[in-house]
Structures are given as C-alpha cells and as structure tokens.
UniProtKB/TrEMBL annotation:
Segments for region (Disordered): 1-22
Taxonomy, superkingdom: Bacteria
A Pfam short name: Acetyltransf_6
Organism: Sphingobium rhizovicinum
InterPro entries: Acyl_CoA_acyltransferase, BioF2-like_GNAT_dom
Protein name as catalogued: GNAT family N-acetyltransferase
Residues of the BioF2-like acetyltransferase domain: 178-299
C-alpha cells in the first residue's frame, strides 16, 4: 500500500501511475469528476503556495482500488482541534474518493489503516462533500461498524440535481410553472430582437483555448470579478481551469456550452463528466444583459443538451443549498453529508486521537442541546 505526496508526484507522475489512475476512474464505483485524473491532476499541479496534499492509495496487490486525497487541518470548523480531511480544491464541489467497483470496503479498510499508522494524521478523519446514498457513505458506515470504529454524521444538506427519463420539453413542462415558462419565452424573443442568438456545444478541441478565455473574461466581467472571486483573479486558479478543461477534453469528459449574441458569448457553462454522470462546474454570464436572464436561458439550453444525450444519466448542480435559480428548474435533489471518523494508532497517538474525537463530539452534542433549549 502506497502513500504518495505532493507536489513532486503531481508534477512528474510516472506512466504507470497515469495508467493505474485512469483504470481506477474507468471502473469507479461512484462517479466524481473532481477526483478524476484530469481535474484532480490539474488542481494539484496548480496548488496555491503553502498547501500540501497527500494521496493515499489503496491497492489489492498491484491493482489500485482506491485513491483518497487528504490534507491536515489545524482547526475543525470553529473548534481549535486539528484533524485530517479529504482535500477539496477551492473549486471542488464533491469529495467522494475514487473506489474500484466491488472493492469499496477493502479500499476503505486500507485508507483507515494507513491513516491510523500515519504520524502526521492527528485528531480524526473529517470527510465532506459525500453523497449520503453513494458508495463511499455505504462503505464508511459498513467498515466502521465492522471495526467498531467511531463515526458520526455531522452535517447534511440537499442540492439540486437532474435525473429524469423525461425528454427536455416534457421535463420543462412538468417541473417549471407555466407563468415562468411564458416569461422566459418572452425574454428569449426580446433577446432575439437584439441580434442573432446562437446556442453552441463545444465539439472541436481546437476551439477550446478561445472558449476558455471567453469564459474567464465573461466571469470576471461581473460581480465575481469585482469581489475578487472570479477564476481570472488568481493566476493559479485560471491556470487550473485551463489545464482541467484541456485534460478533460482530451479524455472526452468536458461538456461546455454557450449562448452567443451576434457572435459574442453572453452566457457560458462548463460541466465535467465522469461515468454516466456529470457535474455542473461554473457558469458565467454577461450581467449587462441581466434583464434577459442569460443564466436561466443557458440552463434551459443545458437541460436540452443533457436530456438529449443518452450517455449522460444525471447531472449534479454542485449548487449551494436552496439556490433560488437552479432549485426552481431541477426537481431532483442530492443529499450531501459530512462524517467525522475516529482514527486509532498506538501509544500517545491513540490517546490523542480518541480525546480529539470525543471532544469534537461532546462540543457538538452540547451545542445541539443548548440550541434546543432556546
């Protein structure tokens, strides 16, 4: 069982590592485009200064059966308790580790055994961004029960997702109010009066560099640029976006679309695919045309693109809970959870980890009790 660390592994991966990672992604029990080789590799290659990430590999002989990126954390939420958590890039919205189908429990036994033995893994394991109904959640609960290892679900929320056998038109009519549909048709008509409106999917890889620059420019032109949160505001994040799009495009996992007005992008959407699913990554719009709701219009185009593609079974919105726009368009929901998992070890490490796990649980229980007394 191997443990690889950054940044050296990410900058110079061997051909064998590339091949084993690709094979794992192709046979993954749970889709996660953010931990697929293209996105995770790009994220690691463009880490902000000072960040360190460990890649825990679970193996069955020579075969890679699991990959878990982790990083140490000096605090656990508001608590001054150190721990180790699954590492998620600033623009990563799902944290399920890669598990080989049929080897889910074995992979998690290996992850936990390696963390138990790692002197740098203090406190406990904090896992966030998991699907409550996914393969990782099931394996974590099964292995913790098997090993009589403490674990606790500490947070959950629901976010919009698209999973339906309906056609795009049938879905639209079934899940969006008639008044809203009428208003959006009116906006589409008004927008068309301003010039030639065209919706396009990216098909030619040669167009990708220009599309990436169009996206970065469009996103930075709005409130994200003003607040400094647009990808272009940080060179390493813009570089990550370009690299992730290029790698995903090469692997056939990039799903990018745009709406143009007289040849100029007014709305763009970047999605990343993995397995039969997809993850909606980022949206960018021309806020000067906000009166036409370009964000909603491109989501309508996205609905048609997804529902008309038989190879995409579902799409995770990756949106915040109770998102007013996407929640009104997509009817399905995905439950996202966080877990706190006890780590073991020997000697003082075992005592320190047990104390940290008990302290975090105790503070949380007390806070819940006090909140209930109000």
């Amino acid at each position: 069982m191997d443990m690889a660390s950054h940044p050296s592994w990410a900058k110079t991966p061997t051909a064998q590592q590339d091949a084993s990672w690709d094979a794992l992604a192709r046979d993954a029990a749970e889709a996660n485009a953010f931990y697929a080789p293209d996105m995770l590799g790009a994220a690691i290659q463009h880490l902000p200064g000072g960040q360190e990430v460990q890649l825990i590999e679970a193996r069955d002989g020579a075969m890679l059966i699991g990959l878990l990126p982790v990083a140490t954390q000096s605090r656990h939420g508001r608590l001054p308790i150190g721990c180790v958590g699954n590492w998620m890039h600033a623009h990563c919205f799902f944290g399920a580790p890669m598990l080989r189908r049929g080897q889910e429990a074995a992979a998690w036994r290996s992850f936990l055994a390696q963390l138990d033995a790692a002197p740098w893994a203090g406190g406990f394991l904090h896992m966030e961004g998991l699907d409550a109904a996914g393969a990782n959640a099931a394996a974590i609960e099964a292995v913790c029960a098997e090993q009589r290892r403490g674990w606790r679900e500490i947070h959950r929320y629901e976010r919009a997702m698209l999973r339906s056998e309906l056609s795009a038109d049938a879905y639209w009519e079934s899940n969006v109010r008639s008044k809203k549909r009428k208003e959006l048709r009116r906006l589409q008509k008004r927008l068309a009066e301003m010039g030639a409106v065209e919706t396009r999917l990216l098909h030619d890889p040669a167009d990708l560099p220009a599309w990436c620059e169009n996206f970065l420019t469009l996103e930075a032109s709005g409130w994200k640029g003003q607040e400094g949160t647009a990808l272009r505001c940080k060179p390493e994040e813009a570089a990550f976006f370009r690299a992730a799009c290029a790698a995903a495009c090469d692997a056939g996992r990039l799903h990018m679309l745009r709406i143009d007005l007289d040849g100029r992008a007014i709305a763009m959407l970047a999605n990343f695919r993995h397995g039969n699913g997809a993850f909606s990554f980022k949206i960018a719009i021309d806020e000067a045309l906000g009166r036409f709701s370009p964000g909603v219009l491109i989501e309508i185009a996205n609905l048609h693109a997804v529902q008309d593609d038989p190879t995409i079974g579902w799409m995770d919105s990756c949106a915040a809970p109770d998102h007013p726009m996407i929640d009104s368009l997509w009817a399905e929901r995905r439950t996202i959870v966080q877990y706190r998992i006890a780590l073991r070890g020997t000697g003082m490490a075992r005592l320190q980890r047990a104390a940290a796990f008990a302290a975090a649980n105790g503070v949380e229980t007390l806070a819940s009790y006090l909140k209930g007394q109000r």
